[in-house]
């Protein structure tokens, strides 16, 4: 028997939230498609060069409009965006509590057993299918990071969380260790209440950022952010920023680790998002010694693959230089003539720093 078609926006919005919870999401909401004020800064942010080498952010529609400047520019048929969030927090301590000079730091989101893109999208598809089933004729598109949409702005207007001064989405109950998935739809879903900003007078993230990437509250220059430098940036890392990267080898958690809203954040329950112990605080020696085979085996299905072998080894030797551990000197001297010229150049810099 065909499912009864629901056309009422409020009922559909409620059904989305229930289905999202059944699919393993911790929170979900609906936002209308609008040219929200937060999106108005996007062209100017790109213009200032803050996106660095992330050229995919510059994609435009046939009229030359930046797709990410508004959902209408990418999908003229869209009326609402469903935003679902799942908690990926786990028990290991924060990077700000890790002080072993022999070890590096991989960002918390990349510890998961399965690449979150895959597991979140799988659950999101369940919500999308249910929506199509009950709403009848409609268009939908589901994305986890890959769509031309600034998810965090829609997360705010879907009531999932406010955009903190560290530019992360923060949920009052969960903190900011959340993955977002969005469904763009032609349906008019009754919007949730936007999330109120609860940063108040706090500036802990801005003060803690080692590279000054949070140039002002709510604004980030991605080209200074350790996440960009260690993951997206290919080739040489600017010398002036190398020391500030500290022992971060893939991403950076500092501005989230210091956030008061994360201090008592609950742990996530999704099995696919539980941490792989070997990725928490990995030994720098292990990372620097990797070859194509060990990299492929160790990071199969992991977001860490995005840094590529060369990038991860580059980051590991940089972290050795920042560790203060002179026991790395013989290894760095060897790596100074590595077959990968980027690794070799960073190893020479790291060895010189340790000898200073
Ligand atoms: S992720 Fe790290 S480098 Fe980037 S803004 Fe936050 S603290 Fe700064
Ligand atoms: S550290 Fe403070 S200012 Fe920064 S995001 Fe968290 S609450 Fe907001």
Succession of helices and strands: HEHHHEEHEHEEEHHHEHHHHHH
Class from helix and strand fractions: alpha+beta
**Strands, total number:** 8
Sheet with the most strands: spatial strand order: 1-2-7-4
Low-confidence stretches: none
Estimate the mean pLDDT confidence: 94
Helix content percent band: 25-40%
How would a crystallographer describe the biggest sheet? 4 strands, antiparallel
Estimated share of beta-strand residues: 5-15%
- What coarse outline follows from CA principal-axis ratios? elongated
Give me the number of helical elements.
Answer: 15
| Ligand species | iron/sulfur cluster
Radius of gyration: 21 Å
> What distance lies between the first and last C-alpha atoms, to the nearest angstrom?
76 Å
Overview of the molecule:
By secondary structure, the protein is an alpha+beta fold. 35% of the residues lie in helices and 10% in strands. It contains 15 helices and eight strands. The strands form three sheets. The protein has a four-stranded antiparallel sheet, with helices on both faces. It has a two-stranded parallel sheet with strand order 3-8. Strand 5 and strand 6 (169-170) form a beta hairpin. Helix 1 packs antiparallel against helix 5. The longest helix is centred in the middle third of the chain and has 20 residues, at 116-135. The chain starts with 8 loop residues before the first helix and ends with a helix. The model has no long low-confidence stretch (mean pLDDT 94). It binds iron/sulfur cluster (2 copies). Residues 164-166, 199, 202-205, 258-261 line the site of one iron/sulfur cluster.
